Amino acid sequence: MAIKRYTAEEDNTITNAFKSNLQTRGTDANMGESDIIETFTIYGQTSLNGTASSEQSKILINFPISDISDDRTAGTIPVSGNVDFYLRVHNAPHGQTLPKDYSLSILPVSRSWDEGYGLDMESYSDVGVSNWISASVSSSAGDGAWVAEGGDYLSEPAYNQYIATGTEDIEVDITELVEGWLSGATGSHGVGIAISSSYADMERSFYIKKFFARGSEHFYLRPKIEARWDSVKKDRRNSFYASSSLVPASDNMNTLYIYNYVRGHLQNIPAIGTGELSMSLYDGANDVPAGAALTATGSDDATGTSVVAGWVSQGIYSASVAINTTSSYLYDVWHDDTTQYVTGSQISVRSFVTDTSVDTGEYVSNITNLKEKYSTSETPRLRMFIRDKDWSPTIYTVATTNIETKVIEDAYFKVFRVADDFEVIPYGTGSANNAYTQMSYDKDGNYFDVDMSLFETGYSYGIKVSYKRDSIFNQQPELFKFRVE
Predict the structure, then answer these.
(1) Which listed CATH number (3.40.50.150, 2.40.50.140, 3.20.20.10, 2.60.40.1930) goes with 363-484?
(2) What is the pLDDT of residues 146-193, one digit of tens each?
(3) Residue 450 and residue 482: Cα distance in Å, rounded?
């Protein structure tokens, strides 16, 4: 699975709105401990020197960027360019007026600020920082003040979220900003969210947009940064095809992987590191590679007795190859100019010419290693067994054959809370989602990883799977349940 969530570590609402007497503004009020954060503009509630008044409320949210940095260092999330970061802030329903047809502005905060301990969002009676005037407590007079009332922000990168009906969540790609924080190019002080200036300057009110804060009792609705990336590995060791003129050139290409496990942990090959090596194919009719290396074509269209292989992630290397062969079996040998490092398992070669069975698109699916309970410290790799629905083996087949699972090229999963059908991890389809819930596959079939730290404990969850066929997603009927403790 390729999704990781980082919940806000600080949030607050700051305002210059009038208190109930319509004379004193709540610029010294703090709401850092509230379970709601809110933004609004109010026009003309009173008059100041003959001019209609203007009032605003803004949101501040800060995130644990050091945790994201640590995860990148550990290889939990990919390097820059291979992962997208989304700001997600969830709408809080309420019974007050709901503004529509406007935009929210999201800007980086340019200096540190204190969350504070205030709660009162009605009369602004809890005085403290941060607030409209001051960012933080300081021992030197004035040092804790914002340079500009209402907060100090960078002009770039700037983001906007259009609000049509008033009930929308914020879901904005802020990858550029997060990468700036991670690289140290920009100080990581979080974001400010407010009604965009083009709307705030109008002679009308936009009152009131509320979101759930980090202190909300709703575990999944707290503000977060969500990292999404494509971690799919399509290892064709169990679905390797000889080249054929019957299919496009791209379908003749087979990607193979090796996994360098050392005492149970993936480790880079010392002499290769994150560099390149070569892969060659040999006739595999016997128990070992036989004869000379066969001529094959790599992903760079170069033809020879070896193709270029590259580093994928810690301890994992891959190579893509097309080969016109009549051999029924092959072996893959991974090497450099002087050393053979790995010989893969025997590959059964399939043929597009003889693969004439009709795929009905109807399957029976099972997760073979799903446990009843998991802890939040686990990230299990769940294995699928898939067969055609109308498959009916003979007694001889069952007795003499190790039945192989069917590999689904485009398979996805979702996870929901059973009690109320709340989607914790939706199907990660669509161009903006990096296919983050697409299943990988290898010689043992389809699989996917589930990071149990994403789940609130004390609940049961259900997994549903969907298979894409001819551009259509077909959700399968099976339901797989587990509980997180």
Answers:
(1) 2.60.40.1930
(2) 999 999 999 999 999 999 999 999 999 999 999 999 999 999 999 999
(3) 12
